[in-house]
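BUG: 3D viewer hangs when loading the predicted structure for this chain

Environment: internal workstation, default settings.
Expected: structure renders.
Actual: progress bar stalls at 90%.

Input used:
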Amino acid sequence: MEKLSKVAFFGHSNYNYIQFREKLEEIIADLIENHGASIFYNGSRGNFDFICASIVNQFKEKYPKIINLKVLSYYPHEKLNYYSDFDDTIYLLDKPVLPKFAIYYTNRKMVDISDYIVTGVRRDYGGAWSAEKYAIKKKKVVINLFENLIN
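Structure tokens produced before the viewer hung:
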């Protein structure tokens, strides 16, 4: 039986990634076709997250078994899914945390449960950068959109 892999996305919230959509499509397609990626975790907090969610959703027609999950950082009163590109919303933390730490701990949990980490990190600060560094420390496979990319 083929191992089903999990993927988490991290990128800067206010960077314009639209010019890199084709490269992201190649990365995500490779993960699905060659690495068994079937579950995709997305914090849904900015431009990188939204473009990745859109691409995964687009691939659902060709790969109907993949699952696109919106990961909540704040404990919800209701389990709502306003953005139609997601199959469901989930809360990964064992218990609610103080709001100022919620994204930090959610990002770490996403790294912990994922096999592959796809990032769009260009700056050496912020939540996406911190999550990428944590993933490297945890010896996860990290694929940074900007590595080996001439733009």
